[in-house]
């Protein structure tokens, strides 16, 4: 058990509720499931936890074709079959063809590791169910070698989901849950502050105003999120955009400079331009 | 101590399990929520709520169950002039003094006393232990300490946080009984996904390979099977114009969410009800029509048919020839509807109107009869049921 409390790092701002969820998961050694809009730092959270607690991090990125078994181990039967055709001696020991997966690696770690299971919802609907036992007991059985693999230290498991699929109840019951809501302007200025410490106050507040205005546009397919905001500010600084360009008499009809960094979808850009155009026609400056 | 709260959650419709309750107890035992009520709220939320759709519901139940005295005061507060409460001095109390205040009786008495004192007092007051004002030990007022006291006009956090987090209801728009936005409809439409083996061969079928190799006398014979991918085909028909103008926005959101979901998604527009023609581009609805018969011939019956419309119109528009408001239709809409349903047995109608209003519109009843009651409201839970019916 760790007595360290997770309170965020110099480059990652954590709200009280999130740090409570993380600390609960660390203390009780249960997995924590984190959901939220894309770009709100779900994956980053695992990296920051590992860094602030000084623990090794194992990342398991899930794709639509990933099977639960692949996180434990894989039996490379094709290689064995090939070796048998070629008369290789390796073929007699089945352990030569067992490839440990990310969970196995984390279980073998000599100190308590952080294990990130990223975007669990990308996988097949049965995927979480297949991992229930392993997450509960932190052990699994390798049938081919008749060996039981047990975690040396129960890892801190962080699971992220983008809500593409419902997760089964039995799985959810075993986890702590946190929904990262989109940061309000106050939290957001803190976040920007840790990424761009020297940023001028006025520039930041103008940029944030413009950013939240873009987010408020109705009907956007993909609203800009924290990571887009950070990219955008980086661009603004690189291009040395003057403060006046962000501020405008009639701020509603101004297009923020370099807005391509905020809107990633062609239709969104189009919609946004049309709205600004319409607004200019109705309220000429 | 948490068991009554647990039952309050269950009564409120949350499917919180015993495991989760035990987890919460375990977490409290390890001293995670000792410092404040806020911490307890965060801890309870992270261990008991597992779906952001339920966060708002949880907030409401939590607020009702742990209702402080602050809320019930709002009526009384209006009678108190603000300058009484402007903080001028601060007060720090010793332990004994705090204990003394704790002994002052229950909430009911406090409320009664407050009302009385409001009647008695008619000027600004600060300090002291009776009158309403700031920085005193009276149970009424702010910037002081009284554990059973009533907070009036305090800003920010002092002994406890002033604005309760759970009262902010920040998760209201994630509740699943509210109308759909693009995000939550996407979640629901994804449930349409049905994985089927169809398409190109690109995955090794190990069992079959071993089997075939064995039969082949040990010579390697690699067998492939198709990779799984989404094979759901959807035909989406959207009502546009007329009484649907209110719902155009929500329909477009449905539509834009749906388009990125399926490999085979075809969409058509109709006005009020389906007749012999539908169209793909609403701006060119008069010039570029697609005959409904062509649609039924072109798209096979394994397509799932989804109508989106409010089904609010004159019943003649469904039941009689020539009933359409836009053109002369040789055959009644109901006949066309039956044709479509015969071709596509898996069909549902999504209605953006709230379900309670359906009974007041005769045409909704007619459409429901035609659809064998497969009409669902355009909410997440409605979509859930609808999609179940499509399977």
What this model shows, in words?
By secondary structure, chain A is of the alpha/beta class. Chain A has 13 helices and nine strands. In chain A, the strands form three sheets. In chain A, strands 2-5-8-1-9 form a five-stranded parallel β-sheet, sandwiched between helices. A two-stranded antiparallel ribbon of chain A has the order 3-4. Chain A has a two-stranded antiparallel ribbon with strand order 6-7. The longest helix of chain A has 17 residues. The N and C termini of chain A lie far apart (63 Å). The model of chain A has no long low-confidence stretch (mean pLDDT 83). With 391 residues, chain B is an alpha/beta fold. Helix content of chain B is 38%, strand content 14%. Chain B contains 16 helices and eleven strands. In chain B, the strands form four sheets. Chain B has a five-stranded parallel β-sheet, with helices on one face. In chain B, β5, α11 and β6 form a beta-alpha-beta unit. Chain B starts with a helix and ends with a helix.
């Amino acid at each position: 058990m760790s007595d360290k409390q997770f309170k965020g790092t110099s480059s990652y701002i954590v709200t009280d509720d999130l740090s409570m969820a993380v600390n609960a998961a660390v203390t009780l050694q249960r997995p924590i499931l984190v959901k939220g809009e894309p770009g709100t730092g779900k994956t980053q959270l695992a990296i920051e936890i590992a860094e602030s607690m000084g623990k090794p991090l194992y990342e398991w990125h899930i794709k639509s074709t990933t099977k639960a078994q692949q996180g434990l181990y894989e039996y490379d039967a094709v290689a064995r079959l090939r070796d048998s055709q070629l008369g290789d001696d390796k073929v007699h020991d089945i352990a030569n063809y067992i490839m440990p997966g990310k969970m196995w690696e984390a279980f073998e770690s000599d100190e308590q590791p952080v294990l990130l299971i990223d975007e669990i919802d990308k996988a097949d609907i049965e995927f979480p169910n297949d991992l229930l036992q392993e997450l509960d007991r932190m052990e699994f059985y390798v049938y081919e070698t008749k060996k039981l693999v047990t975690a040396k230290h129960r890892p801190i498991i962080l699971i992220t989901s983008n809500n593409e699929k419902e997760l089964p109840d039995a799985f959810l019951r075993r986890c702590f849950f946190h929904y990262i809501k989109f940061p309000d302007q106050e939290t957001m200025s803190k976040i920007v502050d840790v990424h761009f410490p020297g940023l001028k106050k006025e520039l930041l507040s103008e940029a944030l105003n413009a950013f939240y205005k873009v987010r408020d546009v109705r009907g956007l397919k993909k609203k800009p999120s924290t990571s887009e905001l950070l990219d955008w500010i980086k661009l603004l600084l690189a291009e040395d955009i003057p403060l006046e360009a962000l501020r405008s008499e009639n701020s509603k009809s101004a297009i923020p400079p370099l807005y391509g960094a905020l809107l990633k979808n062609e239709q969104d850009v189009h919609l946004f331009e049309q709205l600004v155009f319409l607004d200019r026609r109705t309220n000429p400056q | 101590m948490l068991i009554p709260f647990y039952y309050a959650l269950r009564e409120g419709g949350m499917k919180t399990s015993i495991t989760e309750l035990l987890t919460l107890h375990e977490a409290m035992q390890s001293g995670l929520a000792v410092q404040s009520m806020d911490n307890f709220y965060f801890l309870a939320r992270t261990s008991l709520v597992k779906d952001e759709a339920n966060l708002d519901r949880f907030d409401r139940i939590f607020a009702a169950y742990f209702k402080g005295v602050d809320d019930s005061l709002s009526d009384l507060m209006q009678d108190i002039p603000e300058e009484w409460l402007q903080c001028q001095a601060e007060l720090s109390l010793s332990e004994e003094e705090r204990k003394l205040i704790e002994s002052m009786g229950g909430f009911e008495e406090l409320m009664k006393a407050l009302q009385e004192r409001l009647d008695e007092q008619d000027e600004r007051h600060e300090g002291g232990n009776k009158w309403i004002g700031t920085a005193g030990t009276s149970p009424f007022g702010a910037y002081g300490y009284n554990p059973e006291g009533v907070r009036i006009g305090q800003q920010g956090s002092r002994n406890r946080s002033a604005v309760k987090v759970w009262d902010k209801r920040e998760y209201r728009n994630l509740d699943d009984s509210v109308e759909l936005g693009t995000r939550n409809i996407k979640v629901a439409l994804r449930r349409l996904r049905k994985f089927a083996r169809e398409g190109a061969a690109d995955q090794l079928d190990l069992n079959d390979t071993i089997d075939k190799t064995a039969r082949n006398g040990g010579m390697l014979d690699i067998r492939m099977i198709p990779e799984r991918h989404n094979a759901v085909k959807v035909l989406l028909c959207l009502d546009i114009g007329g009484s649907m103008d209110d719902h155009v926005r929500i329909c477009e959101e449905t539509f834009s969410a749906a388009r990125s979901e399926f490999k085979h998604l075809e969409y058509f527009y109709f006005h009020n009800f389906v007749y012999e023609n539908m169209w793909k581009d609403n701006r060119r609805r008069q010039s570029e029509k697609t005959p409904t018969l062509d649609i039924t011939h072109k798209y096979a019956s394994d397509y799932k048919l989804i109508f989106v419309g409010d089904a609010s119109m004159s019943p003649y528009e469904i039941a009689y020839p020539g009933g359409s408001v836009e053109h002369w239709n040789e055959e009644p809409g109901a006949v066309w509807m039956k044709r479509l349903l015969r071709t596509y047995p898996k069909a549902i109608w999504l209605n953006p109107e709230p379900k309670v209003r359906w009974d007041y519109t005769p045409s909704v009843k007619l459409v429901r009869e035609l659809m064998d009651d497969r009409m669902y409201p355009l909410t997440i839970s409605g979509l859930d049921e609808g999609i179940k019916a499509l399977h």
